[in-house]
Design goal:
142 residues, alpha+beta, Heat Shock Protein 90, five-stranded antiparallel sheet, 4 helices, 5 strands, globular
């Protein structure tokens, strides 16, 4: 069955908890595309992290702003774009210092971008005056 160029758009409120809607939608699409359970779990975590970043850091949990999630299906890959209306930022994708975090010397948060980078095949963080986008791509056969 050819999946080429199908697009699903989801708009979620900027409230924690709603990232689960985008996460489960992405998982449902990946399942239809016949991704393995392990890859689906990776994708769910990446989508949740991207949405939580957009909700908290991009939209500042503003009740008037939405997070826009676009799933683009192709025969060989699934692309997920997560967009917010926040101010431009410089992404931090360095490996967190686990020991420092465990010892309480660093904030325990700040894993999102690192996790995303390591869970999907490609990731791009971009900022424009109108907002930020996290683009994630996961390939069906890699």
């Amino acid at each position: 069955m050819t999946q080429q160029n199908k697009t699903i758009e989801i708009h979620i409120p900027s409230n924690m908890g709603y990232e689960k809607i985008a996460m489960e939608s992405g998982a449902a699409v990946a399942k239809l595309m016949l991704f393995s359970d392990d890859r689906i779990n990776d994708l769910k975590t990446a989508i949740a992290e991207a949405c939580m970043n957009a909700i908290e850091h991009g939209n500042k949990t503003s009740p008037t702003e939405k997070v826009f999630v676009t799933l683009t299906v192709d025969d060989s890959k699934l692309q997920i774009d997560v967009k917010d209306k926040g101010k431009p930022f410089a992404p931090v994708t360095d490996k967190p210092d686990i020991k420092e975090k465990i010892e309480g010397k660093e904030e325990t948060r700040g894993w999102g971008m690192f996790l995303i980078k390591n869970l999907v095949d490609e990731v791009e963080f971009s900022s424009q005056p109108e907002g930020n986008t996290t683009r994630m791509i996961i390939y069906l056969h890699k």
